Amino acid sequence: MYCPFCRNPDSRVVDSRLSDDGSSIRRRRQCTECGRRFSTMETASLSVTKRSGVAEPFSRSKIISGVRKACQGRPVTDDDLAKLAQEVEESIRASGAAEIDANDVGLAILAPLQRLDLVAYLRFASVYQAFESLEDFESAIATLRCESKAGAQGSGPLAQTSSTTTLNN
Ligand SMILES: [Zn+2]
């Protein structure tokens, strides 16, 4: 890329640093012409196509601001939201797609939000899945009740006993 100061097309990398989550690399560059330094960020490209057909770069902060509204008054911290956004990004990147539908981003939010806070999940799902009636809420809650029963069985005393046995063997 061009030097932002003198537009010389050549620069050399003087330092490369991986971000904490490993999703981007920051490079410090020095212009071979004017000698001034600038930074570039390198990330695997991931764009989100909105309903209008417009594509924009995937952004964790948009995920966070979208979910934050649903979390108002809930015991959810900024740290929880940051982790959720990271989880969403990782699950989308794991799919290997360079472009994703805004709708699928919403889908990718539902599972981690459900684990984080059920009330926030229901609020988010009601907007995202356009709940129209009490019945929509009732069936979503019924599904959650079913899942939490199944989850309780999985981590119940029986499961613990069997995993202990495995460890002892
Ligand atoms: Zn320069």
UniProtKB/TrEMBL annotation:
**Free-text cofactor note:** Binds 1 zinc ion.
Output the InterPro entries linked to this UniProt entry. Answer: ATP-cone_dom, NrdR-like_N, RNR_NrdR-like
The source's domain of life comes to: Bacteria
Which intervals hold domain ATP-cone? 46-136
- Which UniProt keywords are given for this protein, alphabetically ordered? ATP-binding, DNA-binding, Metal-binding, Nucleotide-binding, Repressor, Transcription, Transcription regulation, Zinc, Zinc-finger
List, in alphabetical order, the Gene Ontology terms for molecular function in this entry.
ATP binding; DNA binding; zinc ion binding
Cofactor(s) annotated in UniProt: Zn(2+)
Name the PROSITE patterns for this protein. ATP_CONE
State the coiled-coil residue ranges: none
**Any GO BP:** negative regulation of DNA-templated transcription
| Zinc finger annotations (unnamed) as residue ranges | 3-34
Task: Briefly state the protein's biological role.
Answer: Negatively regulates transcription of bacterial ribonucleotide reductase nrd genes and operons by binding to NrdR-boxes.
PANTHER family, A to Z = TRANSCRIPTIONAL REPRESSOR NRDR (PTHR30455)
NCBIfam families recorded for this chain?
A: transcriptional regulator NrdR
Homology family: Belongs to the NrdR family.
What's the name of the protein?
Transcriptional repressor NrdR
User: Which source organism does the UniProt entry give?
Assistant: Arthrobacter glacialis
